[in-house]
User: Which sequence fits this backbone?
């Protein structure tokens, strides 16, 4: 842009001074009110030094235009000649649009910034009370409040006070305001004031002397009766005074509002009486209060009203606060409180939340308060309501490392300073970092970042937030390692008792054993111990986030003992970002995965490979198993090798399932639970098929070499054939053979029988590996019939004797091992049975329904809750599968999509064919997936199969964590299961039973 003459140089100078709208700034400088100073270079330089020069100049013009002529001369003369005033006034105008509005409405208030005496530099409660002394109504109180706020903001933006001092001054101003409001309320109702004693207790940030510019002021009211007064009438009078006090501060007038006074932290919250006596408060806290209420009381401070009554309240509740960590459910309550805060943040705002988001202010405050409650039981030096003072006391007492405390101190101060400057702009209650470029520029410049304010601000913010995100590692867990390690001279450490208290508060049920494990892992001067000291603070946090931290730590010690001498193990955990967290999740999620890992610790390497947790294909598994079998010296060694592959691959599958269900810091939990279930079912089924193929090869080779006298195939049925095996499922199979050319039928039958017997023997040999049970009870004639038949024998049986339930069982038949061509001919043989032309007749349908009803009444274990049994209970696996299978047998002859062995696939095909409405299909699918996940979870947690939820609390909690439920919400999980399966049963009643 080219501007001729003098205006061009002004434009360039304004641009260099930091104005974003030089043309607008030039017009403002030409305003008549600034004619006396517009050419003064000092003024322009001072405006350029503010957070927002354009805003500062606009505010100055508005202030000047509001002055009378003689007052304007004084303002401008003082502005040019007095640097302290110039910096203060322009600093405020450049940082706060709201205070600029106040000065335009009250043009004389700029003189509150003129004085520069010692008391003015760091005013206290007495100074603020004097500043509000002339306020006799709510409007005057607001004007006086803003005038005092103006002086606080001026010292803040000029750097005269630091962020902690600003927060303390704001709390003192709030205290003075509450006292003034109570004075006004008492003057309006002198009879009420005489009839009662009323104490105002500040909570939250006001109570902790660390208030924001704009924040709710949390209070609790305590009332009592003077001597001779009726207590009930006194409490009523105190309630009227308290209500009036709240309105004085909170209501909007011509001068706006001050801040809301929030009394919801009182006993029973908004449902409880506004004012209680001290005795009533104590009765509630001793009997009914929850953990979060004691955490809130940590900051309680008497600020207004009857000083004696306020002091009595603080003295009475203080012992209760410092005993809170001994309460039952303290740990899960604390975890729930933090999780609830995070969960309530709208997803679109999480990354901009300074207070509640990950790496935000609440993280530091919450962690410091937790440590105060844990260790303040025995150390009174920790009894502070101010976060930074408490953090300093924790470091001085050895509860937090000094270097870590210093980092957190700096991060907290930076984040609080950001919060202050964001709120100061419009004096609005917000904790969101702005998105607008100009707002970010002003914010950055107000923080002293002048070169590239937006880029520098974002970089500094992310750096400090990153420090806070790792705070649990730094202040919860690292001191635990110091407690069992050799420290430098002069360093303080946690005592064994304090370390035990902390472990207990973080969820470890046996802190003595936990400390023993830590000492074994991290003590000494070896390189291994040094790496463990780096890893363990992070690992301990991940363990504590599980349902069984003790098991996680114990399992980690076992794995570390087994692999400690291998050079790659600790290097993998240290250098591969995901490996350590993946291992922590796996080791603390239950018994099955750790048991598998203990038998082959080298499988931990899978956790560091991005593709390591993906199930392998059936072809790859079978190829590896058969190669291992061929290398073995005998059948026993061959099957041991095959079972070793199975063990490793089961670990891969369980680890992938756990990590997909829990999620990690970088990858959230898998949202498609159906995909998780199918991945597990396919992986376990493929692995079982490959293991059976290996056992078949081993049995044949041991007695007959490369060729069996008869062709032989294994047919999977039930969940095996449907690719839906759970971790604890048996392998349901049928065996079919066909004599080779020239082989006698009896000899072929004997060979086939011998192979089956040998396979079953080999797979059931005692071993540390998980057993693989082959169940052939679904064969013709059941246990009374031959284990293996020829195709003609199967055909003759099915033609003459087959019952409807046997045709239903064949719906999930598929070739899984052996001769594929023979298996295909078996499938061709049974297709007309399972997909009958024209579907099932009415008699067959009635028979299936009768059989299902009998099974429900007879097979459910005695004492089992039918609403929680995943297989045979209401709306469980059996209900859904029989409903789907009935549709297959009735309609698959005409709908090719129904000719599948997989339940979900058949359900989707039935929906696509219009056999089941969308909502009903979704209800059945949700119930089937949930019941399957519960069965998988029970096996993962307990290490043995089960069809119902565990009764032991920790195991139930672990199942809940796998299913995505937070700590302490097992009841919600059970209710959700009942609700989902109840809806499914209603669909089953309609579609299966025709109700």
Assistant:
């Amino acid at each position: 842009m080219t501007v001729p003459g003098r205006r061009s140089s002004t434009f360039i100078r304004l641009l260099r001074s930091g104005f974003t709208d030089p043309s607008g700034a030039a017009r403002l400088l030409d305003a008549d009110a600034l004619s006396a100073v517009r050419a003064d270079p000092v003024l322009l330089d001072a405006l350029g030094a503010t957070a927002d020069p354009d805003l500062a100049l606009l505010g100055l013009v508005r202030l000047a235009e509001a002055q009378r002529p003689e007052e304007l001369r004084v303002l401008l003369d003082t502005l040019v000649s007095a640097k302290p005033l110039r910096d203060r006034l322009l600093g405020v105008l450049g940082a706060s649009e709201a205070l600029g509005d106040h000065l335009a409405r009250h043009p004389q208030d700029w003189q509150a910034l003129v004085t520069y005496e010692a008391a003015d530099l760091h005013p206290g409660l007495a100074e603020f009370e004097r500043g509000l002394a002339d306020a006799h109504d709510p409007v005057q109180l607001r004007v006086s409040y803003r005038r005092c706020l103006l002086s606080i903001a001026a010292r803040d933006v000029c750097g005269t006070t630091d962020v902690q001092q600003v927060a303390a001054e704001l709390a003192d101003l709030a205290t003075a305001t509450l006292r003034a409001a109570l004075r006004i309320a008492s003057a309006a109702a002198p009879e009420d004031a005489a009839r009662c004693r009323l104490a105002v207790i500040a909570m939250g940030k006001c109570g902790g002397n660390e208030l924001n510019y704009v924040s709710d002021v949390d209070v609790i009211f305590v009332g009592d009766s003077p001597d001779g007064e009726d207590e009930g009438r006194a409490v009523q009078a105190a309630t009227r005074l308290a209500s009036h006090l709240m309105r004085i501060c909170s209501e909007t007038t011509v001068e706006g509002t001050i801040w809301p006074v929030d009394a919801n932290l009182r006993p029973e919250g908004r449902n409880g009486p506004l004012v209680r006596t001290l005795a009533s408060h104590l009765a509630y806290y001793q009997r009914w209060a929850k953990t979060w209420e004691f955490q809130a009381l940590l900051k309680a401070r008497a600020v207004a009203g009857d000083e004696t009554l306020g002091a009595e309240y603080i003295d009475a509740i203080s012992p209760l606060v410092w005993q809170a960590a001994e309460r039952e459910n303290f740990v899960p309550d604390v975890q729930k409180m933090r999780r609830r805060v995070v969960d309530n943040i709208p997803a679109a705002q999480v990354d901009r939340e300074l207070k509640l988001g990950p790496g935000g202010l609440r993280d530091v405050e919450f962690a410091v308060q937790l440590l105060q409650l844990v260790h303040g039981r025995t150390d009174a030096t920790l009894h502070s309501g101010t976060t930074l003072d408490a953090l300093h006391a924790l470091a001085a007492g050895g509860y937090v490392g000094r270097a870590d405390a210093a980092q957190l101190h700096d991060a907290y101060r930076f984040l609080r300073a950001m919060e202050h400057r964001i709120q100061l702009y419009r004096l609005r209650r917000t904790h969101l970092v702005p998105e607008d470029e100009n707002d970010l520029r002003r914010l950055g410049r107000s923080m002293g970042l002048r070169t590239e304010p937006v880029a520098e601000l974002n970089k500094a913010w992310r750096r400090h937030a990153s420090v806070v995100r790792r705070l649990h590692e730094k202040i919860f867990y690292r001191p635990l390692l110091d407690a069992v390690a050799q420290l430098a001279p002069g360093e303080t450490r946690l005592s064994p008792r304090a370390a035990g208290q902390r472990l207990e508060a973080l969820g470890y049920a046996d802190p003595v054993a936990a400390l023993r494990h830590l000492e074994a892992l991290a003590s000494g001067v070896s390189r291994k111990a040094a790496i463990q000291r780096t890893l363990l603070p992070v690992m301990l946090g991940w363990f504590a986030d599980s349902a069984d931290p003790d098991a996680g730590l114990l399992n980690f010690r076992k794995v570390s003992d087994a692999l400690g001498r291998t050079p790659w193990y600790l290097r993998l955990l240290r250098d591969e970002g995901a490996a350590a967290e993946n291992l922590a999740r796996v080791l603390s999620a239950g018994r099955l995965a750790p048991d598998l890992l203990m038998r082959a610790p080298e499988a931990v390497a899978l956790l560091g490979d991005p593709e390591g947790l993906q199930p392998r294909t059936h072809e790859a598994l079978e190829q590896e198993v058969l190669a291992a079998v061929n290398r073995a010296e005998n059948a026993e060694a061959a099957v041991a090798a095959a079972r070793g592959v199975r063990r490793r691959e089961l670990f891969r599958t369980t680890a992938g399932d756990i990590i997909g269900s829990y999620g990690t810091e970088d990858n959230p939990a898998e949202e498609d639970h159906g995909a998780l279930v199918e991945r597990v079912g396919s992986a376990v089924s493929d692995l079982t098929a490959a293991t059976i193929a290996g056992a078949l090869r081993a049995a044949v080779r041991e007695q007959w070499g490369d060729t069996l006298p008869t062709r032989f195939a294994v047919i999977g049925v039930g969940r095996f054939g449907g690719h839906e095996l759970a971790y604890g499922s048996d392998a349901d199979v049928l065996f079919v053979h066909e004599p080779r050319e020239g082989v006698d039928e009896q000899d072929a039958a004997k060979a086939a029988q011998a192979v089956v017997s040998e396979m079953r023997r080999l797979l059931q040999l005692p071993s540390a590996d998980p057993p693989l049970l082959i169940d052939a009870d679904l064969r013709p004639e059941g246990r009374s019939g031959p284990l293996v038949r020829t195709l003609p024998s199967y055909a003759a049986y099915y033609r003459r004797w087959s019952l409807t339930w046997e045709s239903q069982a064949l719906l999930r038949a598929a070739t899984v091992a052996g001769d594929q061509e023979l298996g295909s001919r078996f499938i061709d043989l049974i297709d007309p049975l399972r997909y009958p032309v024209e579907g099932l007749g009415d008699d067959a349908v009635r028979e299936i329904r009768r059989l299902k009803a009998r099974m429900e009444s007879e097979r459910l274990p005695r004492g089992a809750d039918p609403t929680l049994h995943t297989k045979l209970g209401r709306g469980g696996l059996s209900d859904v599968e029989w409903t789907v299978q009935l549709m297959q047998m009735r309609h698959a002859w005409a709908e090719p999509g129904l000719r599948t062995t997989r339940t979900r696939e058949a359900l989707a095909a039935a929906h696509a064919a219009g056999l089941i409405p969308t909502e009903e299909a979704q209800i059945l699918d949700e119930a089937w997936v949930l019941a399957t996940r519960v069965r998988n979870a029970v096996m993962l947690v307990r290490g043995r199969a089960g069809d119902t939820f565990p009764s032991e609390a920790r195991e139930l909690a672990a199942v809940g964590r796998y299913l995505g439920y937070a700590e302490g919400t097992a009841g919600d999980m059970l209710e959700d299961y009942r609700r989902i399966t109840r809806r499914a049963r209603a669909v089953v009643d309609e579609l299966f039973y025709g109700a």
Remarks:
- The longest strand covers residues 731-739.
